[in-house]
Amino acid sequence: MKKISFFIILVLLVSCSSNTLKKGYVKALILKAENERNAVLLRKAFQKAGNDKKLVKRIAIASGRIPDFYTYKLVAEKFGKDKEIADTLAIASMFTGFNMSKKSLVRVLSNLNFSGKVAMAMLNTRDTLAFNIVLNRNKIQKNRYGKDIAFNLWRAGKLVNDKILKDFYKTNPYETVYSLYRLKKKGIAKAEDLLNADMNTKFYAMFIVDNPERLLNEKKWQLKVAFIKAKNNLKTAKMFLNDSNPLVKQVAIEYYLKNGGRVSQIDLNSLTPAQLEVALPFVKDKTQIEKTFEKGGFYSYVAAPYMGKNAYEKVMKSKISLYQKLKYIEKAKGEAKAMEIAKEMFKKNGKSTVMAYLTEKLEEGKLKKGELLSLVQNNQKRYLSFLIDAGIVNFKPQSHSLAYYLAKIKQSEKLSKFVIETDKGKLECEFFPEYAPLTCLNFYKLAKSGYYDGIFFHRVIPGFVAQAGDPTGTGYGGPEYSIRCEYNTLEYNAEGVIGMALAGKDTGGSQFFITHIATPHLNYRYTIFAKITHGLSTLSQISRFTRINRVY
């Protein structure tokens, strides 16, 4: 009897081990397929996955990332009635680059197990038939998915009329707010209906309700930012000129001055570089601008473009970046002269900050691709991040063995927490390796190498995002490679969500952003790979030029 029991246990152990190996093999196959954009490998993975729901869901995601419409339809045909898989397929259809013909996609989606996610995906097609199917099915199911539909009506664009919006607002006022905001529809939402709504809802409601002041919560800096922007007048902005939050104060200064406020009412000497950056365009006193420039550091950085023509030698001898010196030349001597000097500079020193300026001009249509390539010549690898962002080069990762990808999966599973230490405090964060393994590993590798040490947040839009990761500080820099997008089912549903910054699909590298508020329009378009677990109060103090000391 003991021998039989031992034999059964042995068989079970071998069976479990074999099953684990099989899952690992399929996971590696899926990761290889999507990272190398190999549809044939994904179809092989689908054959091997069998009825394993977790693997099938991963294949559904991969079919959207590649995209591979053939496998996408196979998964839909075989597992489309399973709610979890149907939801995953619906989300995958919304990934950037998923350009299946509208008619085929609507046919697939309409045959899935209907749910809020499926309704969202159907609305996103902006197809009249799909739109009517969503409304009819919701009606038949007695508004079961009304909240999901109300929140995503904006995705249907011009198919949504005021009557539909009003009807959904009556039953689901909180959820309809975001659609009203995205569609720029005023006169439907009322502040009195939203007094008990969450912060995200109130933030977007500020721009469309009759009395936004009723939704203002002085403790929430995001709501103050939204209130200033929504009112967009001198009186409101003046109320917040001395706010304790640097981002609120920055927005107040900007809106105060652009609405006719007097510069003399603002103590320029007390402002941070980020606040001065929005104020200096309105300063006419060249003496004040020169005093700012003389402070050095980021003060010189923001003041340089506004220095007088006679300050040429002083600006050019200063320690500010070449990018900002070129911005000064552009103002002082004209854009054509600045571009001419930039080309000469690049030929002499090949500085990445000069390349950033030239890339900017390329995007603006002032420089031709051929001109930029001739400047780069045989050093394309060194400037690869610029060429990728400019759409000149499409970077493809080299092919690797399944063992390589299996090792990457195991390495990513060990990632859990990290800290972004800034000069304003710490941001304690958590990785999401299950959803974006290669993105997490890339960030970890860069952080461990010290890549982020000493760089600053180069783009901070109060009430939207804080962005960093570019050593040039211009928004154009990055490493000598790009990584594939790992779009996933996670959502930008709160402040503190961390995603990869992009210039288009598969152009990620080192730049990342952190949300200030829920930003649903970014969902499924930018890879989410982490979130802040502690330190949102620090995030509220981070403005442009805040330094990252280290990431560990």
Pick out its properties.
27 helices, alpha+beta, 51% helix, 552 residues, 4 domains
Description:
- The chain has helices at about 1-35, 40-50, 55-65, 70-80, 85-90, 100-110, 115-125, 130-140, 145-150, 160-170, 175-180, 200-205, 220-230, 235-240, 245-260, 275-280, 285-295, 295-305, 310-315, 320-335, 335-350, 350-365, 370-375, 385-390, 400-415, 435-450, 535-540, and strands spanning about 415-420, 425-430, 460, 465-470, 495-500, 510-515, 530-535, 550.
- An eight-stranded antiparallel beta sheet has the order 3-4-6-5-7-2-1-8.
- The radius of gyration is 26 Å and the shape is globular.
- It contains 27 helices and eight strands.
- It is about 50% helix and about 5% strand.
- Helix 12 (about 200-205) runs parallel beside helix 13.
- The longest helix has about 35 residues, at about 1-35.
- The N and C termini lie far apart (about 55 Å).
- A hairpin with a 2-residue loop joins strand 1 (about 415-420) and strand 2 (about 425-430).
- With about 550 residues, the protein is an alpha+beta fold.
- It has four domains: about 1-100, no CATH class; about 115-205; about 285-380, no CATH class; about 400-550, Cyclophilin-like (Cyclophilin, Beta Barrel), CATH 2.40.100.
- Residues about 5-15 have low confidence and may be disordered.
